[in-house]
Design goal:
Layout: H1 2-14, H2 26-35, H3 41-54, H4 58-63, H5 66-73, H6 80-95, H7 102-106, H8 113-124, H9 133-143, H10 152-165, H11 171-184, H12 203-207, E1 223-232, E2 237-242, E3 253-254, E4 256-259, H13 264-276, E5 280-289, E6 293-302, E7 314-318, H14 329-336
Helix pairs in contact: 1-11, 2-3, 2-8, 8-11, 9-11
Length: 338
């Protein structure tokens, strides 16, 4: 398999030096994979070190509270990863140790096929090929595959090809090699084809289709939401509530929130009404972009003489204690404006 041999030779000379690659500890490897699911290595590295320092074993992570984990995760986004991480840590402890089979690893909450293959191959030499965005890109370009990667047919085709290329005696090195190759050379934009050791056999380069592959069927709609946050300051206390299930930021805490569909004119009228009621506009139209949503937030400060009546799910805390609660990055940005 010339493709795999060339990839491994490139990796031995150019592979990234990452701390979770210096160990076979499945806990450290699993933690890195969960952090890096939707995060670039540069940012994720700091969080991995922070988590490993605070909770060096899975038992210590399992013993933490969800709020502690969410607070440590703040700024990484996709907070379901942190909740799943905490839940899975408790699963592992209940199992009596980290599972050492592919199916056992897949049984952990938040672990899919890619993550299970990465952990299993690197920690236990399980012969399972990883398939993620980097792998789709490298294989689609090299072999000229035009099947959309986000279709059932495409996923099956790429998974079968990736597995067929896996050298059984070097599964850990190969999986890391193809991930690094996609991250360093065969990048989404401006790939370094001149430096590529696979350039001569690359179908996309030969046919001038590098920028066209991989193919992805576009069917996602971006939703815009308007949020109105009201930070209540009353005698050194403020009110927050925990977000529920079925929406962004599940389990995180936030100030009083209003959300409604309004025209530009209606929003202007509502701002005037709030200001007449004694609310001070601190920030207007702060933009926060998520994967499928664009959030536009207004932020008000309200300093009533007495505590107002609020829904039952709000709690009053001392203002200085808010750092003890996991809050969304957008709310953190808004609080900074106070």
């Amino acid at each position: 398999m010339e493709f795999s041999t060339t990839l491994l030779a490139w990796f031995r000379e150019n592979g990234r030096q990452l701390p979770w690659r210096e160990t076979r500890d499945p806990y450290a490897i699993w933690l890195s994979e969960i952090i890096l699911q939707q995060t670039q290595v540069k940012q994720g590295w700091d969080y991995w070190e922070r988590f490993m320092h605070r909770w060096p074993t899975v038992e210590l992570l399992a013993a933490a509270t969800e709020d502690e984990v969410l607070r440590e995760w703040q700024g990484l986004g996709y907070y379901s990863r942190a909740r799943n991480l905490h839940f899975a840590a408790r699963q592992i402890v209940e199992m009596g140790g980290f599972p050492q089979t592919l199916e056992g690893i897949k049984s952990l909450k938040g672990v899919g096929d890619y993550t299970a293959a990465a952990i299993g191959s690197i920690a236990f030499d399980i012969p399972a090929a990883v398939v993620d965005g980097n792998v789709y890109r490298v294989l689609a370009r090299h072999y000229g595959i035009q099947t959309p990667v986000n279709t059932t047919e495409g996923k099956k085709e790429f998974a079968a090809l990736a597995q067929s290329l896996l050298p059984l005696k070097e599964v850990a090195a190969y999986n890391q090699a193809i991930m690094d190759f996609g991250a360093i050379l065969c990048t989404p934009q401006a790939p370094r084809c001149i430096q590529c050791p696979l350039a001569e056999s690359c179908d996309a380069l030969r046919t001038g289709r590098v920028s066209m592959l991989p193919v992805k069927r576009r069917n996602l709609k971006v939703r815009t939401r308007h949020l109105i946050y009201i930070y209540i300051r009353c005698q050194g206390y403020t009110a927050i509530h925990r977000r529920g299930e079925g929406d962004i930021w599940q389990g995180l805490w936030e100030p009083l929130l209003e959300e409604r569909e309004e025209t530009i004119e209606e929003r202007g009228e509502r701002r005037e009404e709030r200001e007449k009621m004694g609310l001070k506009l601190v920030a207007k139209g702060v933009k926060h972009v998520l994967t499928h949503q664009v959030l536009l937030a207004d932020f008000y400060l309200w300093e009533p003489a007495e505590r107002p009546a609020l829904p039952d799910d709000y709690i009053w805390i001392r203002e200085e204690d808010i750092d003890n609660y996991g809050i969304p990055r957008l709310v953190d940005i808004l609080l900074d404006k106070l």
